[in-house]
Design goal:
By secondary structure, the protein is mainly alpha-helical. It has 4 helices and 2 strands; from the N terminus they run αβαβαα. The protein has a two-stranded antiparallel sheet. Helix 1 packs parallel to helix 2. The longest helix has 18 residues.
Length: about 110
Protein backbone atom coordinates (compact mmCIF):
# COMPACT_ATOMS: atom_id res chain seq x y z
CA UNK A 1 0.00 0.00 0.00
CA UNK A 2 1.29 3.46 -0.91
CA UNK A 3 1.97 5.88 1.92
CA UNK A 4 0.02 9.15 1.75
CA UNK A 5 0.92 12.54 3.20
CA UNK A 6 -1.84 12.01 5.77
CA UNK A 7 -0.29 8.66 6.78
CA UNK A 8 3.10 10.33 7.30
CA UNK A 9 1.65 13.22 9.31
CA UNK A 10 -0.43 10.83 11.46
CA UNK A 11 2.66 8.70 12.15
CA UNK A 12 4.84 11.72 13.04
CA UNK A 13 2.13 13.31 15.20
CA UNK A 14 1.60 10.13 17.21
CA UNK A 15 5.24 9.06 17.43
CA UNK A 16 7.00 12.34 18.17
CA UNK A 17 4.53 15.08 19.11
CA UNK A 18 2.06 13.54 21.59
CA UNK A 19 -0.54 13.72 18.80
CA UNK A 20 -1.29 17.38 19.59
CA UNK A 21 -0.50 20.97 18.65
CA UNK A 22 2.41 22.31 20.70
CA UNK A 23 0.58 25.60 21.32
CA UNK A 24 -3.16 24.87 21.54
CA UNK A 25 -2.87 21.23 22.71
CA UNK A 26 -5.62 20.39 20.18
CA UNK A 27 -5.45 16.76 19.11
CA UNK A 28 -4.03 16.12 15.64
CA UNK A 29 -6.53 16.14 12.78
CA UNK A 30 -5.77 15.02 9.26
CA UNK A 31 -5.95 18.57 7.90
CA UNK A 32 -4.70 21.87 9.22
CA UNK A 33 -1.48 20.76 10.96
CA UNK A 34 2.15 21.29 9.96
CA UNK A 35 5.58 20.24 11.16
CA UNK A 36 7.40 23.46 12.13
CA UNK A 37 11.21 23.67 11.93
CA UNK A 38 12.52 25.30 15.09
CA UNK A 39 15.80 25.93 13.29
CA UNK A 40 16.86 25.42 9.70
CA UNK A 41 20.24 23.83 9.03
CA UNK A 42 22.33 23.83 5.87
CA UNK A 43 20.71 21.82 3.03
CA UNK A 44 17.57 21.34 5.14
CA UNK A 45 14.35 19.89 3.76
CA UNK A 46 12.11 22.92 3.18
CA UNK A 47 8.55 22.96 1.86
CA UNK A 48 9.38 25.83 -0.51
CA UNK A 49 11.73 23.51 -2.44
CA UNK A 50 8.85 21.23 -3.49
CA UNK A 51 5.97 21.76 -5.92
CA UNK A 52 2.70 23.19 -4.64
CA UNK A 53 -0.24 20.88 -4.10
CA UNK A 54 -0.70 17.41 -2.70
CA UNK A 55 1.97 15.80 -4.88
CA UNK A 56 4.61 18.25 -3.64
CA UNK A 57 3.39 17.89 -0.06
CA UNK A 58 3.84 14.12 -0.24
CA UNK A 59 7.37 14.49 -1.67
CA UNK A 60 8.23 17.00 1.07
CA UNK A 61 6.90 14.83 3.90
CA UNK A 62 8.70 11.74 2.57
CA UNK A 63 11.95 13.72 2.65
CA UNK A 64 11.19 15.29 6.05
CA UNK A 65 10.15 12.07 7.83
CA UNK A 66 13.68 10.66 8.37
CA UNK A 67 14.89 14.04 9.67
CA UNK A 68 12.10 14.16 12.25
CA UNK A 69 12.83 10.55 13.21
CA UNK A 70 16.53 11.31 13.70
CA UNK A 71 16.19 14.73 15.36
CA UNK A 72 12.64 15.28 16.64
CA UNK A 73 13.87 18.05 18.97
CA UNK A 74 14.31 20.27 15.88
CA UNK A 75 10.57 20.29 15.17
CA UNK A 76 7.15 20.87 16.71
CA UNK A 77 3.68 19.97 15.47
CA UNK A 78 1.39 22.99 15.25
CA UNK A 79 -1.88 24.00 13.68
CA UNK A 80 -1.49 25.84 10.40
CA UNK A 81 -3.09 28.99 11.84
CA UNK A 82 -0.51 29.03 14.64
CA UNK A 83 2.25 28.55 12.06
CA UNK A 84 1.00 31.66 10.26
CA UNK A 85 1.01 33.58 13.55
CA UNK A 86 4.65 32.66 14.16
CA UNK A 87 5.63 34.06 10.77
CA UNK A 88 3.15 36.99 10.92
CA UNK A 89 2.95 38.03 14.57
CA UNK A 90 0.49 40.91 14.08
CA UNK A 91 -2.36 38.56 13.09
CA UNK A 92 -4.73 37.98 15.94
CA UNK A 93 -2.37 37.38 18.86
CA UNK A 94 -4.69 39.15 21.28
CA UNK A 95 -7.45 36.67 20.44
CA UNK A 96 -5.51 33.66 21.76
CA UNK A 97 -6.30 32.22 25.17
CA UNK A 98 -3.60 33.19 27.68
CA UNK A 99 -2.18 29.68 28.08
CA UNK A 100 -2.08 29.21 24.29
CA UNK A 101 -0.36 32.58 23.87
CA UNK A 102 2.33 31.59 26.39
CA UNK A 103 3.00 28.32 24.51
CA UNK A 104 3.08 30.27 21.25
CA UNK A 105 5.69 32.64 22.70
CA UNK A 106 7.75 29.60 23.77
CA UNK A 107 7.51 28.24 20.19
CA UNK A 108 8.67 31.60 18.80
CA UNK A 109 11.56 31.77 21.29
CA UNK A 110 12.66 28.24 20.33
CA UNK A 111 12.56 29.10 16.62
CA UNK A 112 15.82 30.33 15.10
CA UNK A 113 15.79 31.89 11.64
Amino acid sequence: MMESSTDIMRYLARSYFNNECFVTKEKFKYKGFVIHHLKYIENDVRREHYPKGEKGRLQYLKALKPMVEQMPFRFILIKNGIHTRIDHPRRGLSRLKRENFIRLVVAVLLTKK
